[in-house]
Amino acid sequence: MNNFQYSRASDVADAIRLLAADPGAKLIAGGTNLIDLMKENVERPSRLIDISRLPLREVEETPDGGLRIGALVPNSDLAYHPLIEQRYPLLASAILAGASAQLRNMASVGGNLMQRTRCSYFYDTTTPCNKRSPGTGCSAMDGLNRNHAILGTSNSCIATNPSDMSVALAALGALVHIAGPSGLRTIALTDFHRLPEDKPHLDTNLGSGEIITAIELPPHGFARNYSYLKIRDRLSYAFALVSVAAALELEGNAIGEARLALGGVAHKPWRSLGAEAALRGQAATPDHFGRAADLLLQGATARSHNGFKIELARRAVVRTLMQATSATPQSQAHKKIA
Amino acid sequence: MADMTIPERIPINLVVNGERRALEVVPWTTLLDALRDRLELTGTKKGCDHGQCGACTVLIDGRRVNSCLTLAVMKDGAEITTIEGLAGDGALHPLQQAFIDHDAFQCGYCTPGQICSAAGLVAEGRARDADEIRELMSGNLCRCGAYPNIVAAIEQAMSRS
Q: Which residue range forms the structural domain that includes residue A42?
C-alpha cells in the first residue's frame, strides 16, 4: 500500500471541498474494496478522505411512499432493515447473496455502487489493462475470460460489474442522490454505471468531485412475486457468473408489470425495457419468459471462454421468473434451486 | 502520482478487550497490523490479508469485520474485541468450549477468526439452522476442512446461549 495523507470529513460540504483540493484523493467509507485495491497497487490515492462518520445512515420514508437510504448505511443493516425485508425483499435477497457477513457489516451502500470490477487482469498490475492503465490494451480479450461480459462490451474492455445489490436496485428503478461542487443532482441507478466504450477507466457517471449521499427506492417494491437467483462457481461468497433479479405484478396468471435485470454479464446491471414490455399482458409461462430472456440477451457476444454464459443466463432468467411467479423466491441460505 | 512524503503519526485511542489503549499510527496501518505488531495481540491471524479468508475477524463495537481491510486510524474511539478478550475470568467463552468439545479445528490457524465470526453470528441472531450457519459463516475459510465440526460447535453454542 502506498503512503497517503488522511483527512476526516466533518460534513458533506467538507468532503466535497477536500476532494476539490486534492485531485489524487479518494473517499473512503467501509474500505472493503478500496483497501484491497490499494494493497494490490491498483489504487494509489494521495489522500483518503474518511466519510465514515458523516450522518448518512438513515433509512427514511419519502412522501410518495418510497424509501431514502443514506449512503453510509452498512449493507447488512440495509438487508435486515424491517422496511426493506417487508417492502423490498428483492433488494434484501440480492444484498445477502453478495460477499460475506463480515464484508456486509463493513461495506456501505454508496461504496457498493462504487466497487470496481474483479477482472483478474485489472488486479494484476503486471498485465495490460485499459481500465487500470488507459491505452495499454485488454488482457482479458484473448486471455482467460470465463468470468467476463457478454453484453455491452467494447473493443477496450470486457469487464463486469460485480455488485449484486445494484442488480436489484436496477430492477426496482432506484435513484442515486449525488452532491458535488455545483450542487445536488439525482440520476437513475441504470444511468449511474456506464458501459466501457472507449473509456473503461470510468466505471460510473459520478464526477470526480462528487459524493453519493443516498439511494432512493420508488414506492413499488414487488414484495410478493420476486426472486434473486445467483449462479456461481461455489455456493457462497463468490461473484456471479450470472445473476437475475426478477419482479412481477400478477393478476391471476397475467403479467401486469415486469422487472428484469442481469448481473455478472456486463459493465453495469443489464436491464432491457423491451424485454419487460414484452412480458406485460402475457400469461406467466416458461414460453413467454424464454422470449423475454431472448430479448434481454439480444446482441450477446462471447469470447473464447464465456460462451456458456449466454445459455446459462437464458435459463436463469426463465427459472427466476418462474420462482417469482410461484412466490417461492430463491433462498440465499438453502441452496436448492426450486 | 501519490505524495510520498510521510505524514505524521496520528494519535488514536482504542478500547481493546475492555482496556483503553493509546497509540500513534501512520494512516496506512491496518487494524490487523496494529493489533498484532503494536499491541502484541497475535491471536488475530493474518491469512490472505485481502478479506477473503476471515482469519483476521474481530468484533468492532460488537460487529464482526475483517481487520485486514480496516484502517486503524478510522476506528479511533472504537471498542475492539479479539480472541484474547472473549474468555471470562478463568472460564472459556461458550464458543471456545464448543470448538474444543467438537474438535472444530485441525491446524488451528483459522480458529480465532472462526470463533470471533461465530460470536458475531450469534449476536446477529439471523442463523436458525445448519444451512444458515454455513451461509453466514462463509467468510471464514478452513483449509483443513473442519467445517462439519465448526457448524456443530456453533449449533451447540447457539442452543446454550
A: 5-52
A336 touches B: beta carbon within 8 Å: no
User: Which amino acid type is present at position A72?
Assistant: L
CATH number at residue B156: 1.10.150.120
B48-75 core/surface letters (b: 16 or more CB in 10 A; e: else): ebbbbbbbbbbbbeebbbbbbbbbbbbb
How does strand A225-231 pair with strand A211-217?
Answer: unpaired
Look at residue A11 and tell me if it is in a domain. Answer: yes
Domain total for chain A?
A: 2
Q: What is the ipTM of this complex?
A: 0.97
Looking at chain A from residue 95 to 154, which residues have their Cβ under 8 Å from any Cβ of chain B?
99-103, 105-106
pLDDT at B1: 45
Structural domain count of chain B:
2
Residue A304 inside a domain? The answer is yes
Cβ of B57 within 8 Å of Cβ of A47? The answer is: no
- Chain A residues with CB under 8 Å of B138 CB are 100-101, 236-237
Using the 3D structure, point to which of A33, A52, A71 is the last residue of a domain: A52
**Which residues of chain B make contact with A2, given a CB cutoff of 8 A?**
2, 4, 28
Pairwise CB contact (< 8 Å): A52 & B74: yes
Looking at the complex, report in whole angstroms how far the Cα of residue A37 sits from the nearest Cα belonging to chain B.
9
Range of B21's domain?
10-85
Measured between CA atoms, the residue of chain A closest to residue B54 is A102
Determine whether the interchain pair A101/B131 forms a contact, defined as Cβ–Cβ distance below 8 Å: no
Q: Is residue A137 part of a domain?
A: no
For residue A306, CA distances in Å to A203, A315, A330, B25 come to 22, 15, 24, 45
Q: What is the pLDDT, as a whole number, of residue B160?
A: 84
Residue written as cell 401486469? Answer: A256
Q: Supply the CATH number for residue A24's domain.
A: 3.30.43.10
What is chain A's mean pLDDT, rounded? 98
Task: Take residue A113 and report the three cell numbers written for it.
Answer: 455502487
pLDDT band for B7, please (50, 70, 90 cuts).
Answer: low
Could you tell me the CATH number of the domain that includes residue A304? 3.30.390.50
Q: How confident is the model at residue B5, as a pLDDT?
A: 60
Minimum distance, in Å, between the CA of residue B45 and any CA atom of chain A:
15
Spatial distance between the Cα atoms of A15 and A55, rounded to a whole number of angstroms: 12
pLDDT in tens, A238-248: 999 999 999 99
**pLDDT attached to residue B88:** 84
Nearest Cα of chain A lies from the Cα of B92 at a distance, in angstroms, of: 24
What is the average pLDDT across B91-105? 97
- Say which amino acid occupies A30: G
